[in-house]
Amino acid sequence: MKKLLAMLLAIAMVLSLTACFGGTEDPTEPTGPSAEELYLEESRAVYNKVLGEFYSYYQEALKETDVPTRYAKMAVAEAKMLAAGIFLPTTSQGGNYAMTKIAPYTNTPILFGNDTYRFHDRIVTKEAIKAEDVAHLKAKWAEVLGTGTYEQYVKDYLTQKGYTIEDTATFYFDADVTYWDVLATSYAADSEILVNTYDGLMEYDMENTAQFALATEYTISEDGLKYTFKIREGVKWVDSQKREVATLTANDFVFGMKHMMRAGGGLEYLVCAGCANIVNADAYVNEEINDFSQVGVKALDDYTLEYTLSEPTPYFLTMLGYGVFAPLNQSFYESMGGNYGTSFDTIAYCGPYVITSYTSNNSITLESNPTYWNKDGNNLKSFNYMYTDGTDHQKMYDDFFNGVVDTLGMTTQRVEIAKAKGTFDTYAYVSDTDATTYCGFLNLNRNAYASATDAAKGVSPKTDAQKANAEAAMLNQHFRLAVVMSIDRATYNAQSVGEELKLNSLVNSYTPGTYVKLDKDVTIKINGEDKTFKAGTQYGEIVQAQLDADGVALKVWNGSSSSGFDGWYNVEAAQAELAKAIEDLKAEGIEISAENPIYLDFCVRADSEVSKAQKQVMKQSIEAASNGCIKVNLVEYATRDDYLADTYRFNVGSDANYDLSDGSGWGPDYGDPSTYLGTMLPDYAGYMTKSLGIF
Q1: 3-state secondary structure of 137
Q2: Contact 657/448 with Cβ under 8 angstroms?
Q3: I need a labelling partner for 376 at 20 to 30 A (CA). Which of 138, 279, 413, 425 fits?
Q4: Per-residue exposure over 637-671, b if at least 16 CB sit within 10 Å of its own CB, e if not
Q5: Half-sphere CA count of 681, side-chain side, radius 13 A
Q6: Rounded distance, CA 644 to CA 361, Å?
Q7: Which of 648, 408, 618, 400 is nearest to 495 (CA)?
């Protein structure tokens, strides 16, 4: 791929010289492909080589109109992606010890979208909730699910048990808000705060039932292509001073969508073909058309909103609580004169809370919106975020029991403190895992060998020859599989959560194996042969069937789950894959041995003992499994911000400064496997491909 780039650059240089020395070209005109065009072509070449098979299967799945068959075909596509060895699934969120003053499931535990971060329903107590009471409430939730009775039961139960219910709360946060415009950001750290400042058309309640919010009713056309919503009347927009600035109308959803499609926040693909399938969304996002009236989002009158889809999208309603469907008041936006979203003072609010103060790396305060249409239904009248970098374990423990914060994640250090204080057995419980998938991403097309934000940071120690050999190795499937199969993920995770819980949060697939299941028998082809999966078959079982048929030694399904075990760490399989890679690369003129190893750079936070311990595990695992044929350089970053700049916060793959990183992951946006698989699309359409060094 580097040879392709060199050839294109040479062509560009010849064209440039012709223009300078007597050619007929106008020297002011472009004389060859730009750097961006060259990088795009390079990324496409890498993608087609590595993920071309996945893409073909995924496109076939997207064309499927029968939902269960679609799920089955997507599972096959996922198996092809996992078999490519482009990343190593590591963990989900949760599955560790925690203490809390928040009653379980009093915000929706729905697995997708942003509704789980809406805080207005949360029931918070002054006292730490005992583990036995957490367990009781979780069991009651499962018992009464769908009845609409859980909220009142929680209040009655906690009161009878002697707890004091509060109407304010404080939580930790560990990453600053980068963009205050929810329609122009793809960062979870932004949207998890901002989701509390607006309402969606519909939102999931604490029993995982979709309820009307800014919509009051909807209809779906017989062909499944038109969704028409009646908008709640009388809803007000306010500024950060809680002053009314406008009345919400259907046009606010139209203008919000228009703004989002051109803001370049990174999630505009969610409304395009393959996701929401809004008519002409792709064309408008790609600036092939500039007349937004041609897009399938229209205000039929002040309080009637219509979405027109290009094809039936059975999961469309599950997308509505996500930020890309947020409303935006046009008059307020225009009054900001181009400064909308530059701070919490420059956005308008129509949700339950208004951000009233913010100090970088310190605190965020949200107070009740006095005009909110359902303010009497808010269990929390205000709440705060308090910044922590997570390193002062004693202070975090003390803050929880001294009433400063209302939740406490338990690292190994905090577990030891709690045991010494005698609080562990009474209050510590194991938190649920969610549908987030964190990954160790392999850089398939490395362009950066120092930080894009500061060339003096994150500098690779590799020689030019070592860089070239690693780049070639990363394009070999067997080499990639050898790397991802050689990492002891359980020991890696134990550095954060301890030996007892090291398996709890491990995940083995990108899409959780239980995310969807078949509601009827489905027959599809597995490597050319018909195979029938019975009604009730979980997604993960189909992924495993395809991996088994392909002879790939990965275990992503254990019969009931895709998590809670390590189905990737397999030294024997890793060594077999490496042997194949060594033969392949030898044919390319690259000798690999313990004396001439492939060097890989891993990023590590020097200010985090956990990060350093985890990366040592990865280094030792890979070097031991490869018998020294792969060597790992641990490239240290002095601060968390420096580390995140190179592993998470970059916008294009050319800025990914690592060979393997565990700095990012994905959480689902809606209730269909495409919410995961769509992040691996080419040509900047997939959000996560940048983590692979492409697009």
Answers
A1: helix
A2: yes
A3: 138
A4: beebebbbbbbbbbebbbbbbbbbbbbbbbbbbbb
A5: 22
A6: 15
A7: 618
Amino acid at 384: N
> At a CB cut-off of 8 Å and minimum separation 6, what does 293 contact?
none
Structure-block tokens of residue 193:
């705060």
Give dist(CA 537, CA 559) in Å, integer.
10
Q: Which contacts qualify for 491-496: CB closer than 8 Å, 24 or more apart? A: 491/617, 491/621, 492/90, 492/614, 492/617, 492/618, 492/621, 493/90, 493/91, 495/412, 495/610, 495/613, 495/614, 495/617, 496/96, 496/411, 496/412, 496/610, 496/614
- What is the pLDDT, as a whole number, of residue 28? 54
Q: Which amino acid would we find at residue 233?
A: E
Of 446, 432, 511, nearest in space to 693 by CA: 446
Token pair for 266: 């990174």
**Contact yes or no for 132/436 (Cβ under 8 A):** no
Tens digit of each residue's pLDDT (9 = 90 or more) over 598-623: 999 999 999 999 999 999 999 999 99
Residues 6+ apart with CB under 8 A from 59: none
The owner of tokens 């028998």 is: 521
Q: Residue 641: which residues within 8 A CB-CB, separation 6 or more?
A: none
**In terms of C-beta density within 10 A (0-12 exposed, 13-18 middle, 19 or more buried), how is residue 328 classed?**
buried
Mind giving me the DSSP string for 616-643? HHHHHHHHHHTTTSEEEEEEEESSHHHH
In the chain, which stretches have pLDDT less than 70? 1-31
Which is nearest to 434 in space by CA: 137, 105, 76?
105
pLDDT value of residue 11:
34
Whether 503 contacts 39, CB under 8 Å:
no
Give the single-character DSSP code of 125: E
pLDDT at 685: 87
Element of type H or E holding 491 = helix 489-497
Residue 524's pLDDT is 98
The pLDDT tens digits of the residues spanning 391-408 come to: 899 999 999 999 999 999
Tokens standing for 316?
């469309």
HSE (CB half, 13 Å, CA atoms) of 608? 24
Number of Cβ within a 10 Å radius of residue 505: 24
- How many CA atoms, within 13 angstroms, populate the side-chain half-sphere of residue 445? 29
Q: ∠196-200-205 over CA atoms, to 5°?
A: 75
pTM for this predicted structure? 0.78
